[in-house]
Amino acid sequence: MEKKKTQGERREESERRLLDALVEIINEDGIQMATCESIGRRAGYSRGLTIQRLGKKDEMFVTLIDRMVTETNQNLACEIPKETCAREAIHRYIDIHFDDLQNKPSYRAYFALVAGSMTDIALLGEAIKQAHDFIKQILVAVLERGKASGEFPDEMDTAIRAVSIGSYLLGVALQQKLHPKLDIKLLKPAAYALIPLKPE
Q1: Residues near 158 by Cβ (< 8 Å), separated by ≥ 6?
Q2: Degrees (nearest 5) of the Cα angle 20, 23, 29?
Q3: What is the pLDDT of residues 154-186, one digit of tens each?
Q4: Shortest CA distance to 94 belongs to which of 34, 42, 135, 128?
Q5: pLDDT tens digits, one per residue of 84-102
Q6: Which long-range contacts (CB under 8 A, 24 or more apart) does 168-174 make?
Q7: What's the predicted TM-score (pTM) here?
Q8: C-beta separation of 36 from 47 below 8 A
Q9: How far is the first Cα of the chain from the last one, in angstroms, to the nearest whole number?
Q10: CA 64 to CA 46: how far, in whole Å?
Q11: Whole-number Å distance between alpha carbons of 161 and 88
């Protein structure tokens, strides 16, 4: 006999299914089609439960952004151990970005939200900014470590370099959204070229 799920387990399952449905709708139909009704219908729940679990439209998007940030943080901690040299760490981060764009629906949905925030900055602007600041802080920390170890030039402005790398990777994500048939792997060498050169 199958063990009955606890209330906490049922809640966790419903939230997961609703967020998965939200991701599918954003990627397949666009942000505007992601309504409480459409999400609940796809996940097999009522509109009322969808609002109860995810909140209204702006709240559910913020929840999705928060989940992406948490998953990214966990993935980076697993894939890039702290002892990884700075150059290799940035190289791996770039690889993870490209891999996730191709294989992780929630990652692609996040960048669809980024694009959407450009036309409605009041809706998602602060959540998007916090997510990008989080990535910037990670890159700055790695770049600073590279300067301290002698891998990168002392005169390098780590904040500007972090923004340069992040901006290029954001552009790749938006290009993929605009041109789904584009082979984004062709854009990876230019991303690698943004990794600082070793001091002479």
Answers
A1: 139, 140, 143, 144, 147
A2: 130
A3: 999 999 999 999 999 999 999 998 898 999 999
A4: 135
A5: 999 999 999 999 999 999 9
A6: 168/194, 169/94, 169/97, 170/111, 170/114, 170/132, 172/97, 172/98, 172/101, 173/97, 173/101, 173/108, 173/111, 173/114, 174/111, 174/114, 174/115
A7: 0.88
A8: yes
A9: 69
A10: 19
A11: 16
* CA 153/CA 174 separation, integer angstroms: 31
- Distance separating alpha carbons of residues 115 and 135, to the nearest angstrom: 17
Alpha-carbon distances, residue 140 vs 1, 121, 188 (angstroms): 53, 25, 20
Give me the helices (H) in 104-120, please.
105-117
Note whether 149 and 85 are within 8 A (CB): yes
How much of the chain is helix, strand and coil, in % rounded to 5? Answer: 80, 0, 20
